Description:
Layout: H1 2-12, H2 15-31, H3 39-47, H4 52-65, H5 71-84, H6 93-103, H7 108-114, H8 123-137, H9 147-167, H10 177-193, H11 195-232
Helix pairs in contact: 5-6, 5-7, 5-11, 6-7, 8-10, 9-10
Amino acid sequence: xxxxxxxxxxxxxxxxxxxxxxxxxxxxxxxxxxxxxxxxxxxxxxxxxxxxxxxxxxxxxxxxxxxxxxxxxxxxxxxxxxxxxxxxxxxxxxxxxxxxxxxxxxxxxxxxxxxxxxxxxxxxxxxxxxxxxxxxxxxxxxxxxxxxxxxxxxxxxxxxxxxxxxxxxxxxxxxxxxxxxxxxxxxxxxxxxxxxxxxxxxxxxxxxxxxxxxxxxxxxxxxxxxxxxxxxxxx
Length: 235
């Protein structure tokens, strides 16, 4: 019994355990925010990131160039992510981009990063352009509503949809009539009108990113080869 107690005391007094605890504590401090963001701060970060859009876009570009995949697969993922940003699938852009990138045999992570093309700054232009073009292609004389009105319409439609889904499991009646009007007046024109600008923007992103990613990866491989040669030659 005394030998067992001695082993327990020795293990508790091991300085390596305290060092491990200090390391874990330091790690948690490094990777956790000291001040938690409020809802207002999170909304503000969506419109204007803490480091600014320039820094955010630079970070996204660095992540894209460092993906471990051939340049053409990364460029295909970029195409998929940009294209789905022009669709009215709000809340599903990431999932839709990943599925489209998988179908195109592109890089899925690249598609997720490329969906950032659809952000609070570009949304008004994308939404109004897509709606206006969609009404024109469908032969409607209606003018595209303001971006704020489009956003409100999609938010209300989302609430109506989930209310009807929940009504299936309760005694509440389902009301799909408002969604029919939303589909004809907002969703379908947005979907049809977003195809052409989405293809144009995605293709431009593909051909702009492909040579730059190719050049970056070639330069990276050249530097790695030079480091290996220096390490192999001790002189």
